[in-house]
Amino acid sequence: MSNLRMRSYEENDSSMHNTVRFLREHAYLTRRHFLRLGVAGTALAAWQQFPARAEARPPELEQALASLEPFFTPPAEFRNVSRGKPLPHSLSEEKKREVGLTRETWKLEVISDPDNPARLGRQLTKADHTALDFAGLLQLAETHAVRFAKVMTCLNIGCPLGMGLWEGVPLREVLWQTQPREDLRRVFYYGYHNDDPQQMFRSSLPVGRVLEDPFDLPPVILCYKLNGQWLDSERGGPVRVIVPEAYGFKSIKWLSHVVLTNLAYANDTYADGNNDLDSPLKTFAATLSAPREVPANQPLPITGYAQVGISGLSKVQVWITPSDTDLPAGDRHFTQAPWTDAEILAPPSAWGGDLPEGKIPGDTLGFDKSGQPRSWPMRLAKVHWAALLPGLPAGEYTLRCRSVDEKGIAQPLPRPFRKSGHAAIELISIQVRA
């Protein structure tokens, strides 16, 4: 596993030489920008880091790692941000069968936009009995099915909704069945929302993204399985769109229509909310567990996750400071703070997510035949990290964490804007009592 980016650390406090070297490297920043740290500053600089091997980790950290969430989220535990009144997944089974929200009754229409028509050889419609049904989708899957890992994240919510292994047929395989000829610039699509035009929620993509997969991205798919199980109604089943590099609003649930259009611009519903429609997943880090109150001089185990966006992930870093510290002016992203690397955890031995037999199928994109990731951390996924902070004097402290992407750019950059996806640096208050 030499291609995995795993870091191995020696404990700084086990050697005076290591401690002096660390303090020397950070002395300039400490003096210039954090003069008020005093005795606490010396303690904060002497980070207790640890080897990557689990058997060598301090017991305080092992306990925190034992309570980490699984890598893949069980389908029933995904967070739900669905729209609709009533929510389509809450309909009775009889109503779902009536409106095409079961595998037996689902049909997908693929048509030309009547207002901005694309030139097609044919359309797939219910009226002429050519709409794609679930059996037809599975027939395509026999030769075209793909499977890949992706974290599902809402554009305007910081915490990911869940991490899944999504399976389906590339949308382009269905698009080609319409025999497109010209005047096709975008693909927009929407799902069932109670046959109410006011509730319609749609998204769109340039046709080039549907037909090709740039930068080694997985394809845009018509998804019918999550973690090896049929996609249930709450997760958008029987069929939804999954756009690998995009936020959740691009991955429409309860898919019913794909419209091929000569429209020159995006017409997503999310445009009405002043959202950035073209922003791909960002890289950022946040905590999962941190002690909010701890006795003085007791080590602080911290765990967290990083969303690995389109720019990849090279580091997760942490920084703790007394809450009354005067921070340097003109550095609102804390680029000059004495950040210290945390450990990005290696791929798990158990993937979770209720996967059949608990294994990654050998033909999954991004994994080898044995079910091991080809690179780590994986883009478009979520990974876990951990750090053990040394004991501190009594007082109130603020903990921050951040990601650093593969180009060396630290969170919240390069895209700090709120409407293009969450990237704000998290603040955690910690009380150290005497």
Provide a short characterization of the protein structure.
This protein has 434 residues and is of the alpha+beta class. The chain contains seven helices and 21 strands.
Question: How does this structure look, described?
Answer:
The protein has 434 residues and is α+β, with helices and mostly antiparallel strands. It has 2 domains: 12-67 and 282-433, Immunoglobulin-like; 75-273, Sulfite Oxidase, Chain A, domain 2, CATH 3.90.420. Helices cover 14% and strands 26% of the residues. The protein has 7 helices and 21 strands. It has helices at 16-33, 38-45, 59-66, 93-99, 134-144, 171-175, 207-211, and strands spanning 107-112, 119-120, 132-133, 146-152, 162-170, 180-182, 186-191, 202-206, 221-226, 229-230, 240-242, 255-261, 284-289, 293-295, 300-307, 315-322, 340-341, 343-344, 382-389, 395-404, 427-433. The strands form 5 sheets. Strands 3-1-12-7-8 form a 5-stranded mixed beta sheet. Strands 4, 5, 9, 10 and 11 form a 5-stranded antiparallel beta sheet that branches. Strand 9 (221-226) and strand 10 (229-230) form a beta hairpin.
